[in-house]
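Collaborator request, handled under Task 6.
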Amino acid sequence: MRQTCIFCAKPLDNSDEHIIPDSLNGRLHTKELICKKCNAHFGTNLDPILKEALGAQLHFLGFDNAPSLILSDDKGEKYKLDKNGKITGIKVTAEKIEQDGMPGVAVSGQMEQAAKAFAKKMVRTFGKEETLNAVMNRQFVVVEKQIVPNELVAENPLQVTPRLLLAIEKIMVEYYAHCGLNIESISDRLESIYQIDESKANVKLCNFRQQVRKPATDETSHLILIRSIPETKQLIAYLELFNVLCAYTILDNDYSGPDVDFSYHQDALTGDKLDQKVELHLENTEEQEPKFDFWETI
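Structure tokens returned to the collaborator:
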């Protein structure tokens, strides 16, 4: 049983770490990996990158914590699509109008921001006292309208950045340590992740055309795997998140230890463990132009 944090080497203190983040419905967790301070450190500086990058997947799969998607029309106007399918404009406008011979203020935009814009415009146009009287006597009407162009394009939040690669690498090394493998051989990686040193992220994205692994037709899963390759004397880690963000790294280029084959595979929606054999074609991990499956048109 491990007694110290793999990142800072301080005593463990019962901190529960989700190796695949809880925000992605990762169910693999342990209290024998990192301390509370490191857990909080990564929870602020690294783990949220994965939820942000995979926001589209969370959204379309119906997760409660899914962020709104940013959409744009052919004129460049921005909209938000929330998890309930409601589309609202991001741009907020406020203008003085006259209706049925009476002066007033009209605003447009998302309700919360529009309410603030309405209050400011009312005060600037009619003064604080008149505005207060109008509010107290409910002398205003709220009408919700939804005007949306025929076609909106979703902006893909899955942008490949060095920090995203570092967040992926953190999952890999934590699973490596969770499997009881020697962390001294990856001490440099642990240090660069602890320091959030983006310049040392050592991960390659792959499987854009499912040439490394092809999931089952109805599969939406998370997969993390550590495997030795005797033919090349390599020890590799491979990761899939929602079968969309896939990556690998070579942990050891001259591995001479016993054969290693550890894997954790779960249904990303239900959290249930999956037991089917994982077949990888690691000879197809050469770098390619990133191309992610994504719902682009709403």
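The cover message to the collaborator said: "Confidence is low (pLDDT under 50) at residues 294-298. The radius of gyration is 25 Å. Please let us know whether this matches your experimental observations."
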